[in-house]
Design a protein that fits this description.
170 residues, six-stranded mixed β-sheet, alpha/beta, 37% helix
């Protein structure tokens, strides 16, 4: 087991679940391991066709978090399929609520479908909300990646922070 860490007060993590539960879980694991984030709250946002995998994703997030010595509150939001406007409204509302409650907000777009990702990022941008991190787990190859993060060679994957890469906040 990895040494327990007290969560940094104020971190909230929104992750978008699309076709790949492994992509969501592995990106979350990479963020914990490589970026040191320890969110108090995790929101999994998915569309109706993928809602059946949300409980699996939540259980995996709980297990991975436990390995790092903390236990975030986890919630699931289910959206109608391919509803760009509703995705934007829901995620903007989540971000606004987290910020209002004093949380720093990170969004992971790795597993999200294009319509959800675009809706989320456009709505958050138009609202002028302060997102601290936008994470994406890039893979040099998608061959044989449907397995735990630690079993995929490090040189094949890299956790990216789009905000950091763009020089936001500097």
């Amino acid at each position: 087991m990895i040494s327990p860490v007290t969560p940094v007060p104020g971190d909230a993590y929104i992750t978008l679940l699309g076709r790949s539960t492994w992509a969501l879980v592995n990106a979350y694991h990479a963020v914990l391991r490589e970026k040191g984030l320890r969110p108090e709250r995790v929101s999994i946002v998915t569309e109706e066709p993928y809602a059946g995998e949300a409980s699996t994703a939540a259980t995996a997030v709980r297990i991975v978090s436990g390995g790092y010595g903390f236990s975030p509150e986890i919630r699931v939001e289910v959206l109608p399929e391919a509803d760009f406007v509703r995705a934007g409204q829901t995620i903007r509302s989540l971000v606004e609520d987290f910020i209002r409650r004093g949380f720093d907000v990170a969004i992971d777009i790795t597993s999200g479908r294009k319509v959800t990702v675009a809706g989320a990022l456009i709505a958050v941008s138009l609202a002028g909300l302060d997102i601290r991190h936008i994470y994406y787990l890039s893979m040099k190859s998608t061959d044989d990646v449907a397995k735990p993060y630690m079993m995929i060679p490090h040189q094949v994957q890299k956790i990216r922070d789009i905000m950091e890469d763009a020089g936001a906040g500097q």
